[in-house]
Each structure stands twice: as C-alpha cells, then as structure tokens.
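Need the bound structure for iron/sulfur cluster, inputs here:
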Amino acid sequence: MRGIFVKSVKVIYKIGKGPSSSHTMGPQKAANILKYRYPEAELFRVILYGSLAKTGLGHGTDRVLRESFAPIPSEIEFVSEAEFELPHANTMDIVAYREGKELGRSRVMSVGGGDIVLEGERLEEGSDIYEETSFSEILAFCKKRKIRLCEYAELHEEDIYEYLSEVWSVMKASVREGLEKSGILPGGLGVERKAAKIYEASLAQTDATAENRLVCAYAFAVSEQNADNGTIVTAPTCGSCGVLPAVLKYMQDKKGYSDKDILRALATAGVVGNVVKRNASLSGAECGCQAEIGTACSMAAAALSELAGLDLDRLEYAAEIAMEHHIGLTCDPVCGLVQIPCIERNAVAAIRAINAADLAGVLGDTNKVSFDTIVKTMYETGIDLSSRYKETSEGGLAKIYGTENQ
Ligand code: SF4
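Answer from helper R.:
Posting the output first, comments after.
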C-alpha cells in the first residue's frame, strides 16, 4: 500500500467530522465514490470486516455510512471473523443493487488518516510530489540547500500556506468550541467533557502548573470535539487530533508567535507525519496507538522545534524522542468509542512533545537513534502486536474495564 514517492503534506491534515479518520472519514469517502459510480443504485450493502466490524459501532461507522448513502437506503453488516485473509485490518465490501440485482461491488481498505484504497484500482489522493522517502534523505536535501523542513515543503508545494491557513483556523476553532462546551459525550460511557474544568484549574497557578493544565485543557477541548462528532483536523488522525493544536495554541499565546510562524511549524510537522505515513503506518488498526498518538507527538515535537529555531539535527532528535517513548502503545478503546483512553492520551502526548523538544534542545546532537530507525521500529512492533491491541477493543483496557463495569 505504500508508494514510492510521497504525497502532499495536505493529506496529513484533513478537515472533517470526528470521531475516527479510519472508521468514519475513510468509509464516508468510500460511500461517496460508490454512490457517484452507481447513480442508478436503489440499495447499498456494506460488509465491514476486521477492526471496522469490531469497533465500527462505537466509532459510528454505520451511522456515517447511512448518512453518506442517503437518501438511498443501505444495509450494514458486521463480520468480525472473515472467511478470507484481509488485505488490511480495516476492510469493507460495498455492493450496489438495483431491482434486486447486483450492479457492482468494490473492496475498500481504510488505511488510516482518512485515506482509502480500492482493491485493484489506483485512487488518486493527490499527486506524488516528494521524491525523498526517508527522513535522512529529506535531511540531506535540506542541509545541502541550507533550508528548513518547512521551506522544503514550500519548495514542492507553492500553495501550502493557503491550505495550512485554513487548517490553523479550524484547529483554533476546535480548541475554542471545545472549551465552551460541557456535558456528557455521546456513546453511553458517561464520559464528561472536562476541557473547561482543566482550563479553570490553570488560572492563578504558578507558571509550570498553568502551562501543564493549559496545554491539557486545549488537547481535551479538541479531542472532546472529536468524540462529539465535531469538526476537527486530522493530525495525523482523528483520534490523535488534539496534540498538535494544543501545543501550537499554547505556544502562540505564550510567546506571541505570528500565524505565519505557526503555519511554518504546521508544514514542518506535516513533513514528519508524511515520513511515518510513507514508511510505516498512521493506522491504529494496523500498528496500534503508537502509529496515531506516537506520530502526533513526533509531529508536535518537530513543530515546537521549528518554533524554537532548533537546528535540523535537534529537530530530528525531538521527533525521535517523541516517537520512541510511545513504542508498543496499544489501541484498546473502551466500548470502541474514541474517548477512553483516547482523550487523556492526547493531553499526555502534548506535554510529552514539549518535553521532547526541550530535551533535544538541551542534549543537542547526542542522539544515537535516527528518526528513520524509530519509525521502522514502530512499524515492526505494530505488526508484531496482537490484533487484540489494534482497534478491536478485544484486549487491554477495553476488555478489563468492560468486564469490571458490566
Ligand atoms: S487508543 Fe489511540 S489509536 Fe486507538 S482509537 Fe484511541 S487514539 Fe485512536
């Protein structure tokens, strides 16, 4: 599924409704394609397999599919144990019918971050524009030309800042709206919105305590918006959408960075996200939460390094630290909802990103592990993880909490 070249950093930042890039944004895109392809269809049948079948109900996959096919009716089936080898942990078959006869069908893989692949077809998700596929290649390119990572993105994508400007507006709106809301999140778990409470707890505190609470409040705000089907930006996924906006909003308010500075940080983070997407995975169903939150933390650490003006070696170190300490992180969402542990996890990763950038600044170029090495490690670890810990809600917290709270 991984290509030779690398696509636009825009594909890392998708603006859309939560709660899941792979379970709602991807299926929504697939439904729209099939609906367009078969305008005469009277019924669509969707068979969800793998992780889509196991956590699709909690993530709202069936709801999104029905809404996307409407007004044409659709039937959704959940097949947890497929009788064939799945090409991807998030696989679905979509069949179009008219007068009881099959018009056509497609097997679709929702590969993470809202991207989909149709079996046997080449679906354009933006063109391949970056020839460098690893971080070390990008670093060599930048060092030779004495440019920053954001300038590397700018060189290949002239209109990048126009798009990132919209991304930043939506990110800020998701922080603001999340802070203004209270109440219980949907899904039946009884999870309360807590962003405003944490924000209030940050007031009149010492600097260090206030920083910690403010960053967490922002991460909660965006993640709670995501859990409530609000509009967010994947960074790089819906489940991990709170990390990057939290640190950028905090740093802009604290240090007075201009929007242009923030857009350059977003471009930098996008390049880092793209490296993970190209060489490993952004999918919790494929590699566990390390692929989502770990990548978000690396992106945030790189963005903070750009804002702080760290050199490229230190920036790489920061992104590497951020990923390294998420290795092995499982995806075990309780009841298949993107709430426990997802919301708190965004806040913890945002604080960790600040820590990683700070450590890299202090430790300089003493790192032994390259970013490419840690990305490869994350991927191999993810492949080795039991499927119980890859967005199936069959193990870990989902299982234990579920048993204790029946
Ligand atoms: S545990 Fe992580 S990967 Fe799994 S749904 Fe939550 S945020 Fe996404």
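Comments: The chain has two domains: 6-118, 134-404. The beta strands are 6-7, 15-17, 43-49, 74-79, 91-98, 101-112, 115-118, 128-130, 231-233.
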